[in-house]
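Justification of computing resources. Each target in the renewal requires a structure prediction run like the one illustrated here; the chain below, 159 residues long, is used simply to show the kind of job we budget for.
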Amino acid sequence: MPASGDQISKPTNSDVDLSLPAQRRELAGQAPVIAVVALGGALGAAARYGASLMGPTQDGGFPWTTLAINAVGCGIIRIFMVIITDMWAAHRLVRPFFGTGVLGGFTTFSTYAVDIQCLVADGHSRTGLAYLAATMPTALAAVWVAATTTRRLISWRQQ
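Resulting structure tokens:
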């Protein structure tokens, strides 16, 4: 407990000084972005939870559902990014809502890390290592396939 008259120092963020009116206004202007990211994140997390209920992983088993969720999410975000960068000028809140919110909430690389930790801790090191080795190439392959396919479809449509 600080002595009488001592001030408690508050944590600071060197990028934001809310004592400055301009920075308070800037933060207030971000409220719609924060709101759509939160809403999208809730929807994405609910979809992920629903998918995990449809395909639960057995103790010590390979987490196929989480692998599929991450691969599908990576593919969808790439399709989305190709469309909004190459074809469609989206509203400024579409990208934070769908890309950051929905797909950020849907994909679950934190669960990936926890799954590996639990598999190894429970004596299933081979399964954990296989999962560790398979996830990144699978996600990157999903991104490549999604981008290539989407660009081909867009170019075919524009001809």
